[in-house]
Amino acid sequence: MVATKLEEAVNGVMNTFHQYSRKTKDWDELSLQELTNLYKNEYPIFLSTCGSDNPDGFIKELFDKYKGQNGQVSFNNYVKILGKTANIYHKQSHNDMTCDDRR
């Protein structure tokens, strides 16, 4: 059976997460530096519009909101961050250029 585009997209999200999270011993979680590297390398257009004044501060704000008690972002919480990012992209596709994911 061939994977659908959506299945390939989900695998791409997971593989990208693992590409950046395997830099330290906690391979299934992201440190602040790993999340920063991921966003700067994988979402440069997003950061140029939503974090243009202070991309590091924008990423740190996301990190602080979604890190666990161990100070890392789990895959589950990364998916929540990605959901916020996708929601902002969706709003921008409807010409709402704000970087707030709330309606």
From TrEMBL:
* Alphabetized UniProt keyword annotations: Calcium, Metal-binding, Repeat
Any Pfam family: S_100
Q: Which CDD domains match?
A: S-100
Q: Which residues form the S100/CaBP-9k-type calcium binding subdomain domain?
A: 6-48
Name the GO cellular-component terms.
cytoplasm; extracellular exosome
Q: Does the keyword Hydrolase apply?
A: no
Q: Molecular function (GO) terms listed?
A: calcium ion binding; calcium-dependent protein binding; transition metal ion binding
Under the heading InterPro entries, the entry gives: EF-hand-dom_pair, S-100_dom, S100_Ca-bd_sub
Q: Does the keyword Mitochondrion apply?
A: no
**GO biological process annotation, one example:** endothelial cell migration
Tell me the SMART domains matching this sequence.
S_100
Classification via PANTHER family = PROTEIN S100-A12, S100 CALCIUM-BINDING PROTEIN
Protein name per UniProt: Protein S100-A15A-like
This protein's species is Phascolarctos cinereus
What lineage, starting at the top, does this entry show?
A: Eukaryota, Metazoa, Chordata, Craniata, Vertebrata
